Amino acid sequence: MPIIAAPQDLLESEVYIDLERMLGRKMYMKTEGLNFGGSIKLRSAVGMVAAAERDGLIRSDSIIVESSSGNLGIALSVVAADKKLRFRCVTDARCNAATILVMRAFGAEVETVTEPHPTGGLLQARLDRVRELCANDPRYVWLDQYGNPANWNAHYETTAPEIAKHVPDLTVLFVGVGTGGTAIGCARYFRDTMKDVRVVAVDAAGSVTFGTPAAPRHIPGLGAGVRPPLVDPGLFDDIVHVGEMDTISACRLMSRHGFLFGGSSGTVLSGAVSWLRRHDPERRHRAVLVAPDMGERYIDTIYSDAWVQERFGRPVPPFVLEEDPS
Ligand SMILES: Cc1ncc(COP(=O)(O)O)c(C=O)c1O
Hints:
By secondary structure, this protein is an alpha/beta fold. It has helices at 20-23, 41-54, 71-83, 97-105, 121-136, 149-166, 181-193, 244-255, 263-279, 305-312; strands at residues 16-18, 28-31, 63-67, 86-92, 109-113, 140-142, 172-176, 198-204, 238-242, 287-291. The strands form two sheets. The protein has a six-stranded mixed beta sheet with strand order 1-2-10-7-8-9. Strand 7, helix 7 and strand 8 (198-204) form a beta-alpha-beta unit. Helix 2 packs across helix 6.
């Protein structure tokens, strides 16, 4: 029975969903959204704040600041509330209203940037604003999830060893890539400790992370419009790109079985199924996929037929299970 005193103490996830009943193929979905931050980003938040504390960067009057459009902002709001620290989230007009309200409920200060940078868009405008805050007030401590090694290290020290312990006969791991923290931490861990485990990175189609051209994306979480500095593509055995409609189909398949997952989880699920269909027709692999988030924050988007119709101009197709796409 876990008894906790701080919200971030409930961090370890021992919950794996066996997808065999849904997919006809055994694979385990490690469910990372069952904590008080609602996503895997609570691990990164805990790791980055702890590193900043160790480095002596955080004092009682410090104000943690981060540019985030969602889950890291919520996760840092949780940690800051527990530690009685101020947290300022610089977000932009794409951040959904519920996310801002959740952060404020935890006591965070949320600032919304509305004017895009002429070339770097809203993300660059957010980063410029964070730099401006830090330059003008020494109390600000910027954690910088895109460049902070404590981001990937959190997964090297917690997420990956948990998987190795829980599933010792693992042969292939599927991990989504946003900042790259989760995927790089896991890839480094398995390279150092269990070399035979393949680590497959799952990215959103239209993301530039692995050198493919940018295209419009509507679902936050995975993928990036600027190549994330933490990502070293050479650490992965393979890379899979997933289109947004496939993400939505995967989410809808799960929800019709009573599991409401978020967009990143649907993307990783879709990527894992398509990779296994191509590379493991004999079903020899023991596969785990990391599901970063739950579905409530997507109720107005991924789970809304009207939103899908408006964005994509067609209804959601059924999830393709075992047909060979080639
Ligand atoms: C919902 C969700 N899934 C996945 C990710 C990506 O994880 P990472 O930043 O570790 O690559 C993020 C992070 O930005 C996220 O918010």
